[in-house]
Amino acid sequence: MTEQSFELGAPELREVLTEGDLTIEGRLIDASNTTLYAVVTRGPVSLTCVYKPIAGERPLWDFPDGTLAGREVGAYLVSEATGWDVVPPTVMRDGPLGPGACQLWIEIDEDADLLALLHSDHPGLRRLAVFDAVVNNADRKGGHLLPTPGGHVYGVDHGVCFATEEKLRTVLWQWRGTLLPDDALDTLAALRVDLAGDLGVQLCELLTTREVTATRRRVDRLLREGRFPEPGDGWPAVPWPPF
Ligand SMILES: Nc1ncnc2c1ncn2[C@@H]1O[C@H](COP(=O)(O)OP(=O)(O)O)[C@@H](O)[C@H]1O
Ligand SMILES: [Mg+2]
Fold it and tell me: What is the DSSP letter of 234?
């Protein structure tokens, strides 16, 4: 996050990300799609961001409908609805390479021990594990976790979420089968209400109706079972490579 962005709340950040002039500065080399490092400027505010144009998306056999960008923005909307702030502000907008997802760049804590964090009981990471179960994240690698100097953990790269079949694939299985904390149950109950209302409507513009219905069902199931999911059969439960 740039210095200016610390003073801005999520609505202002979204506004700058959506309305600002976007200039591409470079390409992220370890990315699997056209994933660009960019700057958005609006008046006195400049923010660094990741711009993922839809035109640069590689087709995926197991995600034939919709776009990676739509799922990135959908994941952000779910994160916002939970109030957990697990996904950096992400918007859909036009850009030099056409419409795409634009996400605030997060400066990570370079000294953070990612391996230790990965296996820890960090409450933010636990919330991220619940979030992944909700959005059915098929690719939660270690490199998609961004620890900030302030001790917060963001998750990125949500292009392969929201499948209708179970596809949870993650490095965060340390809570599998254990009881969901009460605060997570409260948040999921509120999310269920949101999904039946405005959030559901917004998601239907980004995902297929079946994907939104499946998201509601996953929340219902988490509430009914009251436990973190366990690895399923017939689908590799851990991403490879894990980072
Ligand atoms: N919002 C962000 N802030 C900081 N770093 C990011 C952000 N988004 C992605 N990255 C970094 O760039 C890498 C590639 O981005 P990713 O979203 O995984 O692209 P792709 O969809 O092409 O795989 C990530 O692993 C992460 O290190
Ligand atoms: Mg990636």
Answer: S
In a domain, 110, yes or no: yes
Atom of ligand 1 nearest to the CA of 141: 25
**Which residue has its alpha carbon closest to ligand 1 atom 16?**
157
DSSP 179: B
| pTM for the structure as a whole | 0.96
CA distance 188 to 191: 5
Closest residue by CA, ligand 1 atom 14: 31
Cα–Cα distance for residue pair 111/204, rounded to 1 Å: 40
Helical segments of the chain, H only: 10-19, 68-82, 114-118, 123-135, 182-195, 198-204, 209-225
Q: What is the CATH number of the domain that holds 197?
A: 1.10.510
Task: Give the domain range for residue 90.
Answer: 4-225
Is residue 239 assigned to a domain?
no
CA of 157 from ligand 2 middle (Å) equals 5
- Domain tally, the chain: 1
Spell out the per-residue pLDDT of the chain, length 243, in tens: 445 456 899 999 999 999 999 999 999 877 778 999 999 999 999 999 999 999 999 889 889 899 999 999 999 999 999 999 999 999 999 999 999 999 999 999 999 999 999 989 999 999 999 999 999 999 999 999 999 999 999 999 999 999 999 999 999 999 999 999 999 999 999 999 999 999 999 999 999 999 999 999 999 999 999 999 999 877 789 988 888
| Residue 21 covered by a domain | yes
Among protein residues, the one whose CA lies closest to atom 19 of ligand 1: 31
Domain annotation covers residue 24: yes
Lining ligand 1 with CB less than 6 A are 28, 30-33, 35, 50, 88, 103-106, 143-144, 146, 156-157, 159
